[in-house]
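Quick entry between incubations.
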Amino acid sequence: MPDTVFEPDCATPFTCYLQEIDLLLCDLPQQRRKEIKQELIAHLEDAARESQISPADQRLQQAVMAALGSSFELGVALYEANTPKILTAKRLIDITVSLLLLTLYSPLLIIISIIVKLDSPGPILFRDARQGKHGKPILVYKFRTMFPANDQRQPLRVTRFGRILRKTFLDEFPQLLNVLKGNLSLVGPCPLSQNYGEIDNSLRCRLQAVKPGFCTPGHVKYGFVHVSMETQMAEDAHYINHQSLRYDLSIVQKLVTGIFRDQRYKK
Amino acid sequence: MTSINRELLKGSVDLVLLTLLKHEPMYGYQIVKAVKEASKSVIVLKEGSLYPALHRLERNGLVTSYWQTREDGTNRRYYQLTEIGSMAVDERQSEWQRFIIAIEGVLRYA
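Done. Structure below.
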């Protein structure tokens, strides 16, 4: 059963609010997260004492939440105020593996670059505008597989070589540059597109708590076929609620074996 | 009373917090109340920016925090200035005075 994305399980509006903030703080040490939570509970208690109502009163909780700001805004601000500039284990792995793969495959990548350039007019890389961690705009790199949008002569937009690249997933390879740069992780949720419509705070806290990934949980379940954003999100929510390095490894392992065996990965 | 423009307030939050903590260690809600009272409600700290600001000051070594049980038995996280913090307050207060004088000079000129 995938975790539901839209209905977080919480007893009162305030506990729900705290849970959402806590999700955004998932990189911080446990102790720090606990203290932040306690501090915000104390804030609610003080507000309750001042107006002489119970802290369990839902209208009071709503008022305090309104004063503190949305869970997403406050969570991101708290995250930034509490993040020491250290390398996490995950980041270290991201850097090492992406460097290793880029070096190993560099001859292939150079050859592909030359063919993309010669096969059709336009740049080698296509930069896709997406939302990164905490909604920050990022550009995701891929090999260009289509004719430039302004090229009217080509009704079939995908290039000849582009079709091969897509079939072999080699078009996705330049995302390793994003991983090296630090705006993608090797494994993480699917990055939302930049023009993805209105998104409520609770959902944002759930989906943008961590860096989006090169390999996503959706890839494991559905392969590279196109699925709706909602279906994708359910997998991502499960990933975020249960993330660990072991989970990351299992995703990579399933993807690597899946690509060679499984029909779902045929585009 | 009309409140102050948010952008104007932004640059002075640290100064307000450090100055308050110069007198005694305080916890979050207490700070909100104290600022409101001392500024006769002209400055209403956006509560959402209070905790990130305090945590940033803590990360930068200007304040430290500790948990203490109040008389009513509930725990509060108190913030107090560090040695660097107390030096920084004096520095920032005099900087602020220079700023005010300069702004007043400009306003008079206009």
